[in-house]
Amino acid sequence: MTTETLLRLGSFLAILAVMGAAETLWPRRALSTGKGRRWFANLSVAFLASILTRLLIPLLPAVVAAYGQAHGIGLLHLVPPPPVAAWIISVLVLDMVIYWQHVLFHRRRLLWRVHRMHHADLDIDASTGIRFHPIEIILSMLIKLAVVLVLGPPAGAVILFEILLNGCAMFNHANVRIPVNVDRVLRLFLVTPDQHRVHHSTDMREANMNFGFNFPWWDRLFRTYKPQPDLGHEGMHIGLNIFRGREFGRLTRMLAIPFL
């Protein structure tokens, strides 16, 4: 097992455990479905997506970045910035790409059919942050590999970004109550659970807002920011107006959603 894999797996398990405990102790909303059943299904689809992606695309973004560094491939090698600047630029560019990827998965019909599985969760908590269809994970990996090859970021910056992306996805999907004053400051730097929860509204006018995963600036910059849901966080409805039957909580039916 590579160092990158160990770092990502260790941080993933640690953040998942911390957020799972936090949302149990300080829940933001009452759950409408059983947590154990949902977590089993969401973790199962995440595990399946990870295995399929590694089988179909054995190259990791950090490996491609290291190859680019060794051979001077990528825009950052044309006029090399200072190392710290290269790391900052790399993380920011990769995060902005993930923002636009998310927007694209909402605005293109075929991609939305795949992304619907993520939004079909009837509750939103830390496990929703890793609930993505294997097709979406594979497409996302291809996009990241292409960006890394073109940009030429440091391998360490790519690993840092991957850890941030996984960690922030679980954090901003968590069903955890954060004091309003803390949230107001925190969302200046990170996408908070209250900010991202708006994106999981059954009202598509709200679901087509707040696309950011790590940093909140892209939504403000590109005018897709909505601070609060119209019905409030306790009153808003989570999920889609379709796929609300209990059977869609089973792994096989979740995987079938893009084709229904």
Automatic annotation (TrEMBL):
E.C. number(s) listed in UniProt = 1.-.-.-
Chief localization:
membrane
The UniProt record lists the Fatty acid hydroxylase domain at: 87-224
As for subcellular location, the record says: Membrane
Superkingdom field: Bacteria
Any idea which GO molecular function terms this record carries? oxidoreductase activity
Is Membrane there in the keyword field? yes
What are the alphabetically sorted keywords of the record?
Membrane, Oxidoreductase, Transmembrane, Transmembrane helix
Q: Where are the transmembrane segments?
A: 6-27, 39-64, 84-105, 141-165
Q: Does Oxidoreductase show up as a keyword for this record?
A: yes
Name under which the protein is recorded: Sterol desaturase family protein
